[in-house]
Amino acid sequence: MILAAGQGTRMRSSIPKVMHPLLGQPLIWYALHAAYHATGSKPTLIVGYGAEQVRLYVQDSADFVIQEQQLGTGHAIQQVESLLRGNADFILVITADMPLLTSETLHNLIQTHTTADPKKIPITMLTVINEDSHGFGRILRNENGDVVSIVEEAVATPEQLAIQECNASAYCFSADWLWEALERIPLSPKGEYYLTDIVSIAVEDHLAVRAMIIDDPIETIGVNTRVHLAEATDILRKRINNNWMLSGVTIIDPKSTYIEPNVEIGQDTVIWPNTHLQGNTSIGKTCKIGPNTLLLGSKVGDRCEITTAVVEFAEIEDDVEIGPFAHLRKGAHLAKGVRMGNFGEIKNSYLGPETKMGHFSYIGDANIGANVNIGAGTITCNYDGERKYPTEIGEGAFIGSDTMLVAPVKLGDGAQTGAGSVVTKDVPENTLAVGAPARAIRKLKK
User: Fold this and answer.
1) pLDDT for position 107
2) Which domain holds residue 305?
3) Which residue of 34, 93, 374, 421 pairs with 438 in a disulfide if CB–CB is 3.0 to 4.6 A?
4) Are residues 170 and 285 in the same domain?
């Protein structure tokens, strides 16, 4: 179960807390990812404030249960009983605002609990030793070192506040015992039912509560304010960058490099400073990316060089060189060996193998063959104010500098245009067209 019903008032936002973005993904994405990989099953998501917005994003990645009234974490778990009672032996419970908690830690928590006798140890909980409590409740132990209760920070005594072992709000329960114990959670002075009170119930039943102290306290950092969000972003960014460097990727300046969690990078690729890799971007082997480059939702092949460019939802095959100061927009597809010069822009167009595109050019809604030379300043005039029109250029064509191709227009294989031409009509293959408007003046040798 993932608890995600709270509004998160300290975020001071109309957006549900779990939908605030962290490295390109909302907080809830990290909880869903960790829970699924730890258990191998679809999680149950308990939602409340902004439920429809959360449901629209999550869709079928989780089962949904709505907590109509937010009456505490214990009350939230009670809403799931009718769905899960009799269908599970053990229940993992986490919160949606701890994006740094890994599936490995959750898997260890599950393993620790399921290897014990569920009739003697109905709860295994995650705890953390930390001088900064981050608002977590304190773990109270008896003289034998056994966990006896959790006291919330707001009601803790000064002596209890000095305790450094804190509740990390991740639990594994024996299911049959959990459903019975939930009915005995007392109502707090605030009129809520707290899941933390279930520890005292286990002790009253003369049962043991096992605490697993987490190795890395950073994993337990929760997000309750935008300051916490920035803190988590910084930690997660470092974790991702370190993982890629250990996997064989060179990152020249990790502090200025931003890589989101869904990005894939091949070995021996070099990422230069001020580079942002976002969305479902994949980069092949032995590439050079950056500096000052943004790749969003794009696919890059092997041995490519992209310098000071913006690439959005584009496909780039092997051995392509781009930039500096280039812009590939949605639908751009550069085949193997393409060269794209300074200050060029491509949108919804295919450039065939070994084609070269000169500086200060715009190619939109075009299909361009192999081994074409596109001179500097070439423009496809693809929009008439109401509709977009295509341009087709055949293999081996040569487009002179400052040519304007007024779509719809087609140039055959081996066609050429003179510098400054305005092409408004089709140019046959192996034909030279010049002028404004351009006219065919002679056939060319193949």
Assistant:
1) 96
2) 249-443
3) 421
4) no
